[in-house]
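Quick log. Single chain, no ligands specified.
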Amino acid sequence: MSSPTRSKSEAWLRYSDDLGLGPFYLDRASQSTPEVAAPPDSTDAPSFAERSERAPEESSRVSAPDHSSPALSAAAPRRAPEPPPVNKPTAPPTFIPAAPAPSLFESADRIEGDTLDRIRVDIGPNCTRCKLHKARTNIVFGVGNPKAQLVFVGEGPGRDEDEQGEPFVGRAGKLLTQMIEAMGLRRQDVYICNVVKCRPPENRLPEKDEIATCSPYLFRQIDVIKPKVVCCLGTCAAQTLLNTNQGISRYRGEFFDYRGAKLIATYHPAYLLRNPNAKGDVWKDLQKVMTLLGLQPKRR
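-> predicted structure:
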């Protein structure tokens, strides 16, 4: 073949190969007996899980056929598609419950032969154990039947209580007296006391250190009286006796075992003065107490 003809033929073949029309000849040497590939070593073969993990990455890469390779045959078997990735179920996390905190129900040791008079003497007439003593007029210990079946516990004395030295004698106290009488009882039939014995300034809520200092005397009072029911009036009293920081609406009207008695929490009478619509809820709570004590409501 002459040089010009050879040059034209090579140029035409390269152009056809660029268009993907080749190949136009067959290399017989490459058609000799093909080599048989050795089976892959099972130890090096990727596991199903490994193939599954590579499947998303491999499926995203689409390679174009290499038409320049003469060994490429149209009759070559197609590669089987990789199996879809398998989402292995994950085991749910294991939650280990925290150790329960010590409860105030058993934290205060019972004093053998204790009495209300002894508790009053232990507090003393001039207690200075917490900062509430700085602005108080009187220590408000408690009042009522020392063997009462029902004990009402408030949060702390107000102005009227501080002046008279008796719990629940102001507007809220008058409402509490009406509630007690509606249950078919008299004020002197029950026992009334507070978490703290001195008035917090401006009738604010007792603070944690004040409660921690004064509440052991309250626990002793309950142990001495041994009531069947303890009724907490308001959030402060309920949180102190139940050893919780949850709001009263979470457990109001439910009974709990407490130091040999049943404890129930309801709204404070002062709250009812601001929210008269809640009186119906409190009456339902008191009716549960009456059922437990076998009381009949007072007839008008």
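The beta strands are 143-144, 150-154, 191-194, 229-233, 256-258, 261-266.
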